[in-house]
Design brief:
The chain is of the alpha/beta class. The protein has a single domain, classed as P-loop containing nucleotide triphosphate hydrolases (Rossmann fold), CATH 3.40.50.300. Helices cover about 40% and strands about 15% of the residues. The chain contains 14 helices and 8 strands. It has an 8-stranded mixed sheet, with helices on both faces. It is globular and about 55 Å long. The chain starts with a strand and ends with a helix. The structure holds adenosine-5'-triphosphate and magnesium ion (MG). Interacts with MinC and FtsZ.
Length: about 270
């Protein structure tokens, strides 16, 4: 049975869709069978980032409403063989996403894929709560700034109360993905420090993705950054994050943090102290 991941944030524009595509591709590039599911009904972003917008015929709502079977709606990535997209509808109403329909589709996807990665819309309304509903693991995407951290904190509250896992008394596995991290701005004090974010949210760190033009370039050519430029700094950070999701334990370094040798050495030195 596949594992369901929700990529969520509360605040908009923090890098959820970018991260869904990159983590999904990174897991598929390891050979796992992955489907990325776009829950952002009405905006349809994930297909653009994946470069599949012209190949969309049927979408999640079509499958939920029974207008199409799941295999008709799934789009196989042209570059990574084991990567698939279940797109969102651009035109339909959010109300077409029914809880029963979502449950059925997720259940069906779990039988066929190792990972089901759900790209959540921003906010805390219906689309976002439906995207997280069946998750085993949550990736909470946060930028190192106060409003983003505050909204992530609200989302963590929802993950611990409104999901199937929470309702059945199980622990929801939650990870923090710090994105758009700018070492220069952090040094100047224009951004929250990694330690501060970790202290406020107190969930384990999955990775730190640097602010980088490579993300924009990848999006412009319609490819996840791990596919567009697999040696770029954000791609390497996403590859490591994907390995951690798959259970590996790897050291985490703060981009640009040369003095201390990275966050993990800080954590270790603190432990040793
Ligand atoms: N590491 C990064 N470096 C530079 N730009 C980035 C990075 N991550 C994301 N971006 C840019 O930030 C913008 C928002 O990213 P994205 O669409 O992934 O966010 P989102 O959380 O899905 O937004 P929404 O809430 O609207 O769905 C995009 O233009 C994207 O290219
Ligand atoms: Mg998005």
């Amino acid at each position: 049975m596949g594992k369901v991941i929700v990529v969520t944030s509360g605040k908009g524009g923090v890098g959820k869709t970018t991260s869904t595509a990159a983590l999904g591709a990174a897991l598929a590039q390891r050979g796992d069978k992955v489907v990325v599911v776009d829950f952002d009904v009405g905006l349809r972003n994930l297909d653009l980032v994946m470069g599949a917008e012209r190949r969309v015929v049927y979408d999640l709502v079509n499958v939920i409403q029974g207008d199409a079977k799941l295999p008709q709606a799934l789009i196989r990535d042209k570059r990574v063989e084991s990567l698939f997209l279940l797109p969102a509808s651009q035109t339909r109403d959010k109300d077409n996403l029914t809880p029963e329909g979502v449950e059925r589709v997720i259940g069906e996807l779990k039988e066929h894929f190792d990972w089901i990665i759900c790209d959540s819309p921003a906010g805390i309304e219906r689309g976002a709560t439906l995207a997280m509903r069946h998750a085993d693991i949550a990736v909470v995407v946060t930028n190192p700034e106060v409003s983003s951290v505050r909204d992530s904190d609200r989302i963590i509250g929802l993950l611990d109360s409104k999901t199937v896992k929470a309702e059945s008394g199980e622990r929801m596995e939650k990870h923090l993905l710090l994105t758009r991290y700018d070492a220069v701005r952090a040094e100047r004090g224009d951004m929250l420090k990694v330690d501060d974010v970790l202290e406020i949210l107190s969930i384990p760190l999955l990775g730190i993705i640097p602010e980088s033009m490579d993300v924009l370039k990848a999006s412009n050519i319609g490819a996840p950054v791990t596919v567009a430029d697999s040696r770029s700094a954000p791609a390497l950070a996403y590859f490591d994050a994907a390995r951690r999701l798959a259970g590996e334990i790897l050291p985490i370094t703060v981009p640009g943090d040369k003095r201390s040798g990275g966050l993990l050495s800080k954590i270790f030195s603190r432990r040793a102290a």
